[in-house]
Specification:
Oligomer: single chain
Number of strands: 11
Mean pLDDT: 95
Order of helices and strands: EEEEEEEEEEE
Largest sheet: 7 strands, mixed
Radius of gyration: 13 Å
Shape: globular
């Protein structure tokens, strides 16, 4: 059963914007925090942003602060997590993954449900 589905990746020029969304359902729906991570070819997966399920607390990687915004919407059966990305740079190029876990922190080990990822490519 697919529990996290990301949408919204694509190709954009430097300075442009993209909005990613992640629909969370099933067991992942009950997790306390949702996060976005990214992984570029040949590099480790890195934290981007996270938010409490309630929407009350957010955290960001230094590389994306003031450019990216994470938000969340909920109903009785699903959660949708958004990542608004502005002023995109070529170094933002990566596969972006949505994750559900226990705390809105950068530690990848605290996230136990993951989506399949969506590619974001920023051209210079």
């Amino acid at each position: 059963q697919v529990q996290l589905v990301e949408l919204g990746g694509g190709l954009v020029q430097a300075g442009g914007s993209l909005r990613l969304s992640c629909t969370v359902s099933g067991r992942a729906f009950t997790r306390n925090a949702m996060g976005w991570f990214r992984q570029a070819p040949g590099k480790e997966r890195e934290f981007v942003a996270a938010i409490l399920r309630s929407g009350g607390s957010t955290s960001y990687a230094d590389a994306v602060k003031a450019r990216f915004t994470i938000s969340i919407s909920r109903d009785n059966t699903k959660i949708t997590v958004y990542l608004e990305m502005n002023s995109l740079k070529p170094e933002d190029t990566a596969a972006y993954y949505c994750a559900a876990g226990s705390l809105p922190v950068p530690d990848v080990r605290l996230y136990d449900y993951w989506g399949q990822g969506t590619q974001v490519t920023v051209s210079s």
